[in-house]
Amino acid sequence: MKRKRLSSRLIVEKVFSLVLFVGIVTFCMESARGLLLIALPILAVVDYAIFYLPDKIEFDDETVYIKTGKETLAVPFQQVTMLKITWISIGSKNVWKLKYIAGGRERSARFYPRNYADTLAPFIQLLKAKNPNAKFTRWSGK
């Protein structure tokens, strides 16, 4: 099977965020210049945390590929220990957390999934088939 992208690129959300960012900056420049010094760093950090910290994830029949920064890890499905939905969301897209073993220690990746029916449901089915010991949980604050 060819690699499928599991994580979303959040294109619509990024465009909406940019429009909102420009609107806030415009308002601050016209009405409250002092607020601009506070708003810009906060908006930049929030934008980075929401859109650029989540990992990029792809998968095929045997392996999950996790791109974190410049590094791409190839993790066999047998090394995935948990998949859970978290309480963090943008609109209707929740952040999911994937735990796995790499380099002898447990690591985790967070991602916004693409369309549920297209990639997430087949990923979950494949994970259950390849690794029946993997845990699946709903969300919690942890």
Structure report:
- By secondary structure, the protein is an alpha+beta fold.
- It folds into two domains: 11-50; 55-137, PH-domain like, CATH 2.30.29.
- It contains three helices and eight strands, in the order βααββββββαβ.
- The strands form two sheets. A four-stranded antiparallel β-sheet has the order 1-2-3-4, with no helix packed on it.
- β5 (80-90) and β6 form a beta hairpin.
- α1 runs antiparallel to α2 (33-51).
- The longest helix is centred in the N-terminal third of the chain and has 21 residues, at 11-31.
- It is elongated, with a radius of gyration of 18 Å.
- The two termini are 34 Å apart.
- The mean pLDDT is 86.
SSE diagram, text form:
Layout: E1 4-5, H1 11-31, H2 33-51, E2 56-59, E3 63-68, E4 71-76, E5 80-90, E6 93-102, E7 105-111, H3 116-130, E8 135-137
Parallel strand pairs: 5-8
Antiparallel strand pairs: 1-2, 2-3, 3-4, 5-6, 6-7
Helix pairs in contact: 1-2
Structural category is: alpha+beta
Order of helices and strands: EHHEEEEEEHE
Residue stretches low in confidence (pLDDT < 50, at least 5 long) are none
What is the CATH topology classification name of the largest domain? Answer: PH-domain like
Q: C-alpha Rg, in Å?
A: 18 Å
> Helical proportion?
25-40%
Number of domains: 2
